[in-house]
Amino acid sequence: MRAQTTxxxxxxxxxxxxxxxxxxxxxxxxxxxxxxAGRGEMTCAHRTRPFGSVxxxxxxxxxxxxxxxxxxPFIRGRIVDLSVPAARxxxxxxxxxxxxxxx
Length: 103
Hints:
Largest sheet: 6 strands, mixed, barrel
Structural class: alpha/beta
CATH class: Mainly Beta
CATH architecture: Beta Barrel
Number of strands: 6
Order of helices and strands: HEEEEEHE
Number of domains: 1
């Protein structure tokens, strides 16, 4: 019984090592006006976060939640591209590119 418990504990511990924990990031965000943005969805593009995951993006005292549905941005220094509805909700439309934090 003890050997089975030790084996099970070892499997659980090694399995947990493969679970990735999303870390907070800060950097530049821009917005894009193509894809599903016309339907009013608050979506975004991120290079590594899984499709369908929800990110909290903060800028200038505002925080929104948007769903990852695309890959990008592919411009150095940018960490996320937001849909037009998400950019409007953050109040970044006139600036175009702003520094955000992403959780």
